[in-house]
Specification:
With 102 residues, the protein is of the alpha+beta class. The protein has one domain. The protein is 39% helix and 23% strand.
């Protein structure tokens, strides 16, 4: 391993969920060091940031509700995970074929 580089084991963990609900925005929810922030992507390159506690709580509840209706596909649910990635692979392959025909 190169000096200054972390191994994959040092990167922490994450959870990956699959949801059939199409989300129309990108949200980053941060709660660290007694600071709560919500970042909203706006018009591709812009973002809006707020530390308003009520907005944060509302957004957090919305995300928790969305997660509750989603399928956990990291760590468990190997069949669901394989189905998801196979579907994504097919979508990408279809896109490449469409581009090549164009």
């Amino acid at each position: 391993m190169h000096e200054g580089k972390k191994s994959l084991e040092d990167n922490g963990s994450f959870t990956l969920y699959h949801s059939e609900i199409e989300i129309g925005n990108n949200i980053i929810l941060i709660n660290a060091n007694s600071t709560s922030k919500v970042y909203l992507r706006h018009q591709t390159f812009n973002s809006i940031v707020t530390t308003d506690p009520e907005f944060y709580d509302n957004t957090s509840c919305w995300i928790d509700n969305l997660i509750g209706k989603s399928t956990l596909i990291s760590g468990v649910s190997e069949k669901a995970r394989q189905q998801y990635f196979n579907k994504m692979k097919t979508v990408f392959q279809d896109m490449i074929l469409a581009i090549e025909k164009y």
